[in-house]
Amino acid sequence: MRMYDIIIRKRNGHELTKEEIDFFIKGYTDGTIPDYQASALLMAIYFRGMNKRETADLTMAMVNSGSKMDLSAIDGVKVDKHSTGGVGDKTTLVLAPLVASAGVPVAKMSGRGLGHTGGTLDKLESIDGFQVQISMAQFIQNVNRHKIAVVGQTGDLAPADKKLYALRDVTGTVDNISLIASSVMSKKLAAGADAIVLDVKVGSGAFMKGTEDAFLLAQEMVDIGTNLGRNVVALITEMNEPLGYAVGNALEVKEAIDTLKGKGPEDFMQLCIELGAVMLVLGGKAKDYDAARQILQANIKSGAALAKLIEMIEAQQGNGVQIRNPEMLPKAEHMIEVRAQASGYVSSIDAEGIGIAALLLGAGRETKESAIDYAVGIVLSRKVGDLVEEGDTLAWLHANDLSRLEESRARLLQAYTLSESNPAKRPLIFGMVDKNGITRY
Ligand code: URA
């Protein structure tokens, strides 16, 4: 078999066999197939697509490219969650302790941010001492003892995805349904959970810009998991503006703490409750979504969910005092107000633009090697639907290094679109996909 022939076959619109897909993934993972040939095939897949059988085979080839986690030593139904990526998406910081406080074991492997999107591990590392790399034995022990652990992905879990994702990131081949579905599902299947909840983002800050594509992506991922005996449910959720108000690591941790106290942004709280309700039902801790929502709301009110976050932080050597006293989290030296330059209703906030504005302040990495400044970022004052007058505060920039402040401010202003009329409100959740099909809300 030759990689050249596989590229030509896909370029000409043919269906690839399981053997061809296995050959590609094995060769690319072990380095015998070079980046330029893998890039050519990815671009051919991008334009020609893959059918369901090819996508499932690609997923399994990536699962089999590395080791698989065995979570059988953890008691109960293990429910994992994955977001397809967004800006201000601090969901795991709230959802994981919230669900764990209701008795669902959360054994979560999270990632770092790259480009304009943030990563849970970076956010957690803004807490002094927090360890994201712990041994497998410790990970399992923590989940059994505390019902929760959030750690970095081990290098050997779906290594093909790791290599391919980095290549797709720089070759314009990320936003393809088969490639995203196989990337997400290979990681989730290798991570060993019994059930998986997917948060499929749609909108300007997401890879899927339109709702129909987001439903197709969700359906593809649910089908892959269902065919392999996993219970998978996807929610299609809004990413036409950042989630909540805070973008930047310690700022997002603070917003997550507020949310666990019941004082968080409405959109973010609602998303956590809806995703959490699905996780509780899948984990067998609630008989239906209504009962699940009530349990979750009660755990916010009683402080049990916040206590669970502190328990997890301390179990992973983090400083729980900073969670009890969020003013002790890293703080930027300067707070710069950004004012509206015109009047009108905020009709959209380009989430990617806000992500880049935060990145320019040092909140994210421009290359894999960049160091993050945990303290910096952006806190929005206005969201979609708000009426602003010229001169009103749109947002606050939290900065240490001022060298790219003006660039950041310009990106932020560009991200806001104002209009004369109040824009139609988009729903936060567009629908659900599970093994029974699609439900549109
Ligand atoms: N998230 C992933 O894990 N993979 C993709 O391809 C896109 C989003």
* Helical/strand content category: alpha+beta
Write out the strand line-up for the largest beta sheet, numbering strands in chain order. Answer: 1-4-5-13-14
Biggest pleated sheet: 5 strands, mixed
Note the overall shape.
globular
Radius of gyration: 21 Å
Heteromolecules bound: uracil
Fraction of residues in helices?
40-55%
What is the number of strand segments? 14
Mean pLDDT: 94
Helical run tally? 17
Distance between the ends: 48 Å
Strand proportion, as a percent range, falls in 15-25%
Describe this structure in words.
- The chain is of the alpha+beta class and 441 residues long.
- Helix content is 45%, strand content 16%.
- The chain contains 17 helices and 14 strands.
- A five-stranded mixed sheet has the order 1-4-5-13-14, sandwiched between helices.
- Helix 10 (211-227) links the parallel strand 4 and strand 5.
- Helix 2 (18-30) packs parallel to helix 4 (52-63).
- It starts with a helix and ends with a strand.
- The model has no long low-confidence stretch (mean pLDDT 94).
- The protein binds uracil (URA).
- Uracil is lined by residues 84-85, 165, 174, 179-180, 183-184, 207.
